[in-house]
User: Which sequence fits this backbone?
């Protein structure tokens, strides 16, 4: 009980004092709630299972969130289980409710443990809630093993990629840090730098972006001008073979034009030489003018 200090002792006492339900009584309450909407029956059913909620909630206390909040979320899961439970399936309500209580608590932890969402798939959730436990279990006994070996074993046990284990291990190794947190000595003349100032932007600088856009437009203009040096047949072959996203084969194009595929290849090669010569001449003229 010591680990529940501050949680709400009245809530705990009430939960522990609630009587256990016999199978027949539990079934009767579930039927009254499901078929008649009897809220008194729901209240009695939920109250009798609050000790189950508390028992599950305290298992997740090591994630640094208030146990009272975990119990509250577990209670939400309990009510969700009551809303979905079918009393005619010969399953005890406690067995059915356990899954919903745990799922509700785990979802709350994933949403609040970090400002960065850390478990959007079933594999990531399994990693989040089992990584530390498996690391501790695999580290006990036997010869000492390095982190690389442990991560490989954990990945094998959970059936996930090693990279996923490494990423989650890194995330769980430390708390969130604000990008506005100061770095360095706050007594320095310039004042402390912030972490956000240390982030590297992989995007090109504005002048590089503008320069690249200008160069691209210039090259497109050169290409359009060079294409005017080709005959109609050369242009059509080059367009079908080089300028379209889905290029066709020499044989297909030869069949369409009524010539052999070798002849198509020769015309294509000649067209490319013409383009290369026209572009080289244009580039030389620009360099000379510059």
Assistant:
């Amino acid at each position: 009980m010591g680990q529940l200090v501050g949680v709400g002792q009245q809530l705990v006492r009430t939960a522990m004092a609630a009587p256990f339900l016999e199978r027949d009584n539990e079934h009767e309450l579930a039927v009254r709630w499901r078929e008649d909407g009897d809220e008194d029956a729901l209240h009695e059913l939920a109250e009798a299972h609050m000790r189950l909620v508390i028992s599950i909630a305290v298992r997740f206390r090591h994630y640094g969130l208030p146990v009272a909040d975990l119990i509250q979320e577990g209670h939400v899961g309990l009510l969700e289980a009551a809303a979905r439970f079918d009393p005619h399936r010969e399953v005890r309500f406690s067995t059915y409710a356990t899954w919903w209580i745990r799922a509700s608590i785990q979802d709350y932890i994933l949403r609040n443990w970090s400002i960065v969402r850390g478990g959007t798939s079933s594999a990531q959730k399994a990693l989040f809630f089992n990584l530390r436990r498996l690391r501790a279990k695999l580290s006990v006994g036997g010869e000492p093993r390095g982190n690389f070996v442990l991560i490989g074993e954990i990945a094998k046990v959970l059936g996930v990629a090693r990279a996923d284990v490494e990423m989650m291990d890194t995330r769980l190794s430390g708390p969130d840090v604000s990008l506005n947190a100061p770095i360095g000595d706050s007594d320095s003349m310039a004042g402390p730098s912030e972490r956000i100032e240390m982030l590297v932007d992989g995007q090109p600088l504005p002048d590089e972006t503008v320069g690249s856009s200008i160069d691209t437009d210039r090259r497109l203009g050169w290409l359009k001008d060079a294409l005017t040096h080709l005959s109609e047949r050369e242009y059509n072959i080059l367009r079908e073979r080089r300028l379209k996203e889905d290029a066709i084969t020499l044989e297909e194009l030869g069949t369409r034009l009524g010539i052999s595929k070798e002849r198509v290849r020769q015309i294509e090669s000649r067209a490319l030489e013409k383009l290369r010569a026209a572009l080289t001449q244009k580039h030389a003229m620009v360099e000379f003018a510059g």
